[in-house]
């Protein structure tokens, strides 16, 4: 059960409770947010939907949570539900949850986390005449499309030729004023120097990784750091982690075994971060903030690093089910990294 499916499952439980007269709520939430549990939580995912419903339902949040808990426990794929704190629902999936998540990611490929949640919406994005603003608008539009929206883009002036050739900006963005009532004008802190000498991938990362209100580190004394092939460069860590997963798949094929999703222990934070990817894409689209996606990719890459050395058999060791499941997890993580980089307009090479 993916986070998106679990969100729908919880929302369905809310609707059934309302239809049964157990909850008197006039307006149901459009979606339920599920995420890895925070401090004091437990299980695989947690949601605060009971706290959201308590006031309109005229019931204490713990009572609403207990009501939903009873219904969720009857759902296939959910092994336990615990109410913690003021009314958080902590949900545990059954024993094959890890394998199902990996299978879902591999089945979806780079489109894992893409939804039709924003289908029918056509948000208007407008960028001032600045390289960072135009790159930001392009990345936001890509993520919005991944959620089903069809954004309409305008610029204050036609994009510079170098922005199109080097930064990968579409050449056909129409000129507009961005004064419509539905328009979001993107006006991030401008880059202090021309980003184009970095080339497309490094330049886009340098412009998108900082939050829009933060100043990008560009120019003399900074550009070399964005191009460095070492661990201090977060873009390198992300791309290197992706390339390592592809190399592991090639090496495993040479050894005669293929990935097979299954339990992986220990796996640290890798699986929770992969499970959180759809929520990160939704938040990136909602807040027009590609930096959220960029930071998420760095977290995935860093969490994946300790796993990679245990994927292949060592010495005379024969490939086992554990090797196959770790290989599947590595492939899934690489898939998420590649899909996320693509949404940022950055290449994810198989070889570095």
Q: How does the SSE layout of this entry go?
A:
Elements: H1 3-19, E1 45-47, H2 49-57, H3 61-72, E2 78-84, E3 88-93, H4 97-108, E4 124-127, H5 131-146, E5 152-155, H6 161-165, E6 183-186, H7 200-208, H8 223-227, H9 234-255, H10 270-275, H11 277-287, H12 290-308, H13 321-343
Parallel strand pairs: 4-5, 4-6
Antiparallel strand pairs: 1-3, 2-3
Features:
flat, 3-stranded parallel sheet, 352 residues
Descriptive report:
- With 352 residues, the protein is mainly alpha-helical.
- It contains 13 helices and six strands.
- It has helices at 3-19, 49-57, 61-72, 97-108, 131-146, 161-165, 200-208, 223-227, 234-255, 270-275, 277-287, 290-308, 321-343, and strands at 45-47, 78-84, 88-93, 124-127, 152-155, 183-186.
- Helix 1 crosses helix 3 and helix 9 crosses helix 12.
Mean pLDDT across the residues is 90
Q: Strand-and-helix sequence, N→C?
A: HEHHEEHEHEHEHHHHHHH
- What level of helicity do the residues show? 40-55%
Biggest β-sheet: strands ordered side by side in the sheet: 1-3-2
> By helix and strand content, what is the structural category?
mainly alpha
């Amino acid at each position: 059960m993916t986070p998106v499916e679990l969100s729908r499952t919880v929302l369905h439980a809310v609707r059934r409770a309302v239809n049964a007269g157990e909850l008197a709520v006039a307006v149901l939430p459009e979606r339920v947010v599920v995420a890895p549990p925070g401090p004091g939580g437990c299980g695989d995912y947690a949601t605060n939907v009971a706290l959201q419903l308590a006031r309109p339902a005229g019931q204490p949040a713990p009572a609403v949570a207990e009501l939903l808990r009873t219904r969720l426990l009857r759902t296939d794929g959910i092994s336990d539900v615990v109410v913690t704190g003021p009314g958080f629902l902590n949900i545990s999936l059954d024993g094959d949850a890890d394998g199902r998540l990996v299978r879902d990611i591999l089945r979806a490929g780079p489109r894992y986390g893409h939804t039709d949640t924003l289908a029918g919406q056509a948000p208007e994005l407008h960028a001032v005449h600045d390289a960072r603003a135009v790159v930001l608008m392009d990345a936001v539009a890509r993520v919005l499309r991944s959620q089903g929206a069809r954004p309409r883009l305008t610029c204050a002036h036609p994009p510079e030729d170098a922005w199109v050739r080097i930064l990968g900006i579409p050449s056909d963005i129409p000129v507009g004023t961005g004064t419509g009532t539905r328009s979001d004008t993107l006006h991030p802190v401008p880059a202090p120097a021309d980003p184009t000498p970095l080339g497309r991938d490094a330049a886009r990362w340098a412009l998108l990784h900082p939050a829009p209100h933060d100043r990008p580190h560009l120019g003399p004394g900074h550009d070399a750091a964005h191009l460095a092939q070492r661990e201090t460069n977060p873009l390198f860590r992300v791309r290197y982690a992706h390339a390592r997963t592809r190399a592991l798949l090639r090496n495993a094929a040479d050894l005669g075994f293929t990935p097979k999703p299954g339990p992986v222990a220990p796996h640290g934070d890798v699986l929770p971060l992969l499970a959180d990817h759809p929520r990160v894409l939704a938040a990136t689209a909602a807040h027009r903030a590609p930096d959220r996606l960029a930071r998420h990719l760095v977290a995935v890459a860093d969490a994946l690093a300790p796993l990679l050395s245990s994927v292949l058999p060592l010495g005379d060791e024969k490939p086992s089910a554990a090797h196959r499941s770790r290989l599947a997890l590595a492939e899934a993580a690489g898939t998420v990294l590649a899909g996320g980089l693509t949404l940022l307009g950055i290449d994810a090479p198989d070889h570095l």
